[in-house]
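MODEL INPUT / OUTPUT PAIR
PAIR INDEX: 1
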Amino acid sequence: MTTPRASIVIPCHNALDYTRACVESIERHTSEPHEIVLVDNGSADGTPEWFAERGEGALVRNPTNLGFAAAVNQGIAAAAAATVVLLNNDALATPGWMTALLAALERDPGIGIAAPMSNYVGGAQLLPAAELGYERAPGPELDRFAAERNARLAGQGFEAERVMGLCMAIRREVVEAIGGFDPVFRIGNYEDDDYCVRARLAGFGLWVCRDSFVHDFGSTTFRMLPEDYRRLLHENGLRFCAKWDVEMVDGRAGPVAERPFDPRRHVVPLPALG
């Protein structure tokens, strides 16, 4: 068996149609040797059974919804490749997405995490609606737009202070240095901000690839949960502020000041898989 260059970790809770579309897009548009690690958080819609029937990839099953961070950590622990790529189950890969992410990590050993542009994401990764050359996804319109854009902007990108958990290509050395995501953030939100802070304190840079595009349908799992999304976001924002001693500014946690990396406080051990 060929050693994978990337382990693609997909946490999910129900939403089988989105998960199927995500996996199919990966297989269409990822030429590099890879494995898919699906971490199922107590789905009741046939998602784990569907993935198991494929006969490819690794499946981690949880009886209940452990939250995004805990599921990601299980996926990272199960990953075999030197690069771990986190991908939301309601996201779609496009032509050249993985090639650009891996190339960014290979060009600069100081970059620990590379991330794509997207239609539905916060911060500098957001591609404005006026620049989106497609209206429907999935489909050939999205693929043509992304293929042309990714080829035209080959090798281009920029450094960032944070990237979003929608899709993150993480160098194995980052995992060895800081471990996994902090499950204190429970169901989700701010765990990616926290991971980026810890990665930067450990000396790793973050890079946004202009030549990689991932379509996102937008918080589909959160919309299916009984909890109120805005309340979850606010509560995790307060947890982030308490952890990093910062204040909320305009409804968001403020920037974290530079400080020495402290392994006792900034490393989150990965779980042992049975």
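PAIR INDEX: 2
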Amino acid sequence: MSSRFTEQETETYYDSEDAIYRSFWDEDGSVHWGVFDESTGDDFLKACANLNEMMVSKGRIDSSSKVLDLGCGNGTTAIWLSENQDCHVTGVDLSGVRVQNAQEKMAILEQTAQEKLAFEKASATELPFAEGTFSHLWSQAVIYHVPDKESALNEAYRVLEKGGIMVFDDLIKPQPNISPAAKEFVYDRLLYDTPYSFESYQDALESIGFTIVEAHDLSPHLKNSYLRLSERTPMDAGNHAEHYAWLSNAYRETAKAVDNQEMGWGLFVCQK
């Protein structure tokens, strides 16, 4: 199933919105949600780091891993993953602006670190890699943007080696009835649509050939992420004040949409 949004719209959105996201999501340019627990409290960035650690553990990524970071954005997580696990990471993203940012970050690293990293512009539905290239595929807050999700999941399966692990999170649609507020502040704002609930997403992965290793409904953490982001949104933003005020309200409306089961968030670990 294809969505009503196009890859070109998504590319344009992320090319143009990078500075806004850096201003209050993460100044290093990492854009994803977080998992909150006693160690994080309500600290959004700690919760984001917690998700990273959780995915490394559940994905069983180590120094022998060859990882594809699908939708790498500015390269922050790919570089962190390569440095912390001492593994090779290739990042791809639809946004040329963000791929350039990632390449510039890589260029200032030590040569030994650079040798374990690569970044290039590519679509999730047409990956420029041979079958079985990677031991792991990692993706955070990306696939919901892809109009043809089935093609993206098939491509992920293709580029993984036999026994390879795909560890990723994605937005889900728990039920099909979406209010006008959720359409405006969630679906249209994020250029997002999906045919998948938490359960049907797993069915789709299995139909491609994956075995589900773990699946976790993280929707309460998505709600908390957006409430914390609403608090982090700058209120004194000069020429951008009106836009930031709109965003802060949109984040609160997004939290309401999670409560109303108009959107959700899942973490999936599956094996080829």
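PAIR 2 NOTE: The chain has eleven helices and seven strands.
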